[in-house]
Design a protein that fits this description.
heterodimer, A: alpha+beta, 5 helices, about 35% helix, B: two-stranded antiparallel sheet, 9 helices, globular
C-alpha cells in the first residue's frame, strides 16, 4: 500500500465510518425488531415444553407468583416475578411444581428448570435451559442419561420444623451413589456436575418450604 | 496473487472457476489454513459443524456482497475497520435469525456464533477479493469459499463425532462395545483430525503434480 499521508482527509474517513456505522445500526435494529416476536414465542414454547418434561404426568400448568412468602396465581405477564409453575394431571390433581434456578457453572451461568413433586417430596426432573459448558465435557449435564437419571427421584424431604432439607443434596463420585439425595458426578465434568448440585441444593432450600407452606393454594390452582 | 492478475486482464465474466476454486484448489481450511479457530472449536459433531459452516457462509456472502458494493467509497486507511463493522453486523443478524429459527440450534452453537466475527477467512476474503472485484464475482467467490469451509468443517466433524461419540448427527453408527475416544471431541482431537486431513490433501496434491510431470 502506498503511504497515503494527506491524500484522504480525516473528515472523509470519519464520515465513512460513521455512515457505515449508522447503516449497520439500522440493520441490526431492524433484524432485532423483526425477529423479536419469533424469538419470544420460541423461548416461551421452549419453556412450556421444558415444564412438561420436568414434571412427569403434567397435562396443564398454572403460573404462580411468589409475593412475600405467599404464592398467588399470576394474572397476565410479569417479567420480574419469581414464578412457580404448578402442573396438574388431566383430572386437576397437582402432580408437581416446576421452578427456574441458576448458578455459576464452569463457563458462565447455568440456568436450569426443575420439577418438584410434593407427593414424593423429591425432585423429579431437570432440564438445562441455558449453559455455555464445554462442548463434549461439561455439556454432558444436559445429555448424559446416567446423570439425568439422578433426578428421576432426588430426595429433598423437609425436616420436622419444615424450614430446611433433612438430607442436603450432595455430589458423589461416579458409581458411589448409595442414597436418594446424592447426585452421581460425570467423569470429566466434575465442576459442571458440582454446579448443578449447588444450584439445586440452594434453590430447593428456598422453594421446597415455600411450596409446602402454600400447598393448599397450589392444589386448588387448577379449579 | 492470482486475484490481482484476474483484475488486470480485461474483465472476464464471472465464471464457475471463481466458485469452484473455493471448494478445492483454494479451500479456505485445507489449502489456505484460514478460520482455524471455529474449525477446531465447533467441529465436535456433524450438526454443529454444518450449522457453523452455513452460518459462516451466510455472513461471508452478505459481507462480501456489501463490501464489494461500497468498495469504491471506503478510504484505504479505514477499510479494515469498515469491513469488520460490516462483518460484525451480519454476525449479529445471523445470531438473531438462528434464535428465531430454533432456540435449540442457538444453544448448540452457543458462544461460537459471535466468534464468526473473528473468523479470518471472512475478513480475508473481504480484503483479498471483494474489495478488488465486482459484485457478481465477489458473491460467487464468497459462496465457493463458504461451501469449501462448510465441507471442511463437515469432514472434521464427521471423523470426530464417529470416533469421539460413535454417532453421526446424533444417530448411533458404531456398536455399543466401541469405547468412544473422548480426546476426539476435545480440542486436542481437532488438531489430530485436521492434521490427518491436511496430510491426505497434500498427499493427493503431490501425487497429482507427480503425474503431471
Amino acid at each position: 500500500m502506498p503511504p497515503a499521508a494527506g491524500s484522504v482527509s480525516s473528515v472523509r474517513m470519519v464520515s465513512t465510518m460513521g455512515a457505515i456505522g449508522i447503516a449497520c445500526g439500522i440493520l441490526i435494529v431492524l433484524t432485532f425488531q423483526l425477529t423479536l416476536p419469533r424469538i419470544t414465542a420460541n423461548k416461551i414454547a421452549a419453556l412450556e415444553k421444558a415444564i412438561f418434561e420436568v414434571v412427569p404426568g403434567a397435562e396443564k400448568k398454572v403460573t404462580f407468583k411468589l409475593d412475600d412468602g405467599r404464592l398467588a396465581v399470576l394474572e397476565g405477564e410479569d417479567e420480574d416475578a419469581v414464578k412457580y409453575y404448578a402442573c396438574y394431571s388431566g383430572d386437576n390433581q397437582l402432580v408437581g411444581v416446576a421452578m427456574e434456578a441458576s448458578g455459576q457453572g464452569f463457563a458462565d451461568i447455568i440456568k436450569v428448570l426443575y420439577g418438584y413433586s410434593p407427593g414424593k417430596e423429591a425432585v423429579v426432573g431437570i432440564k438445562v435451559l441455558e449453559s455455555k459448558e464445554t462442548p463434549g465435557l461439561g455439556d454432558k449435564i444436559e445429555k448424559d442419561p446416567n446423570f439425568i437419571a439422578n433426578f428421576d427421584s432426588l430426595d429433598v424431604r423437609l425436616d420436622s420444623g419444615g424450614d430446611g432439607i433433612v438430607n442436603p443434596i450432595t455430589l458423589v463420585k461416579p458409581g458411589k451413589k448409595t442414597d436418594m439425595w446424592q447426585i452421581e458426578a460425570i467423569t470429566g465434568a466434575t465442576i459442571s456436575s458440582r454446579a448443578i448440585t449447588n444450584i439445586l441444593s440452594a434453590s430447593t432450600a428456598v422453594t421446597v418450604p415455600v411450596i409446602t407452606q402454600n400447598l393448599q393454594a397450589l392444589e386448588e390452582g387448577a379449579n | 496473487m492470482a486475484d490481482n492478475k484476474a483484475t488486470t486482464a480485461k474483465k472476464p465474466p464471472p465464471t464457475m472457476d471463481v466458485f469452484l476454486k473455493g471448494l478445492w484448489k483454494e479451500n479456505p481450511v485445507f489449502v489456505m489454513l484460514l478460520g482455524m479457530c471455529p474449525v477446531l472449536a465447533v467441529t465436535n459433531s456433524v450438526t454443529n459443524a454444518i450449522a457453523m459452516g452455513l452460518a459462516s457462509t451466510f455472513v461471508l456472502f452478505m459481507s462480501s456482497t456489501i463490501v464489494s458494493l461500497v468498495r469504491s467509497f471506503i478510504p484505504k486507511q479505514v477499510r479494515i475497520a469498515s469491513f469488520i463493522l460490516i462483518i460484525a453486523t451480519f454476525v449479529t443478524v445471523v445470531e438473531y435469525l438462528i434464535q428465531a429459527i430454533s432456540i435449540d440450534l442457538h444453544k448448540a452453537l452457543g458462544a461460537f456464533i459471535s466468534l464468526i466475527v473473528v473468523n479470518c477467512m471472512i475478513l480475508g476474503r473481504s480484503e483479498a477479493f471483494a474489495s478488488k472485484n465486482n459484485v457478481g464475482k465477489s458473491m460467487l467467490d464468497a459462496l465457493g469459499m463458504g461451501f469449501g469451509f462448510t465441507i471442511a468443517c463437515f469432514s472434521l466433524g464427521l471423523v470426530r463425532e464417529v470416533l469421539g461419540a460413535g454417532t453421526i448427527a446424533g444417530f448411533q453408527v458404531l456398536p455399543d462395545s466401541f469405547e468412544p475416544w473422548s480426546v476426539m471431541v476435545l480440542p486436542g482431537g481437532a488438531f489430530f483430525v485436521l492434521g490427518g486431513w491436511l496430510l491426505l490433501f497434500n498427499w493427493l496434491d503431490e501425487r497429482k503434480k507427480a503425474k503431471a510431470l
